[in-house]
Amino acid sequence: MHAPTSQPGSQPRVAGDQLTLLLSLVPYLIDQGPVTVTEVAEHFGLSVERVRTLVSLIALSGIPGETRQYLHGDLFDILWDEFETNDRIVLTHQVAIDDSPRFSAREAAALIAGLQYLCALPHNADTDAIASLMAKLTRGSSAPPTQVAVAQRDAGATREIVQAALSTGMQVEFDYLNARGDQEHRLVDPLRIESVDSDWYLRGWCHLREAVRTFRLDRMTDPRVTASPRSSHTVDVLLPDTLFQPSRDDVDVRLELPTAALPLLADYRPERSEVVGTGVRTRTTLRVAHAHVLKRLVTGLAGIVTVLQPAESRKVVFDWAAAGLAQYSGDNQPQVDVG
């Protein structure tokens, strides 16, 4: 963008500030559309007279064409009647800005989906800023982005209750449905709340197990902050960096899947992987707390992962899949050989 040079004797700092304001003002006007001088003044913290001066300078700014001269089509222009009569700024011609690259509709939709997920994180309280950014992505893409909605696994109320207990140093109690389908009442000293992908977890000292345990928030019911402070011994509890820790009671499960899909198991830290035949498929071993964990794994990689052993784990997955299929097929049971 070209802007008129300052007169001899004017301070370079003032000229630099003027150019910075112009470089900020033009994108703002393009993004906002028709806007009043007063609104611009409030947004930038300037006087209305200063805004009027800057707007007048915009009409003298641009990029020279092939003749290296500033002709009418090479300069910004505004609707002067609106500006002089109604104190409204309406750009009628802009240069260079339209030539900047734009996100495709799919790129904008992907970014908007990511921002929707960020809105759910507890540290992103300033959702207005994220909403503004999503609106800019929608307006600035080369085509209207596909409407995407990111489902929230946790309703948010449970997370707020657990976060309140954590910040106030109080115990929290709730009913918990574990992966085996057992319902238990838990009293926990909360130590940390964190997320993995779309799932939220509470790590804390469980008074029932008398050890540190990890709880998924979407498996809690009727959570509440108690009137009792956290136990004093929790001060000495050192949480490991990783969310899930191996135990001597873990089960080794042998799986087979396409070699190209092996990175999808990275969060489970696969061990003893070996290719099969030509290398198209791979067999690997996972250590899981119990066979019921495989239900979720197989759901996420349906048709990709085959559970080989132990037989108990194969049966758990088969029974779970058969129960799900029965919901659609009535009394017709699938004929599958579980080995």
UniProtKB/TrEMBL annotation:
Pfam families reported in the protein's UniProt record? HTH_PafC, WYL
InterPro entries for this protein: CBASS_pafABC_assoc_protein, PafC-like, PafC_HTH, WYL_dom
Signal peptide location in the record? none
Q: PafC HTH domain: from which residue to which, for each copy?
A: 17-139
Q: Which residues form the WYL domain?
A: 160-225
What name is this protein filed under?
WYL domain-containing protein
Q: Which organism is it from?
A: Cryobacterium lyxosi
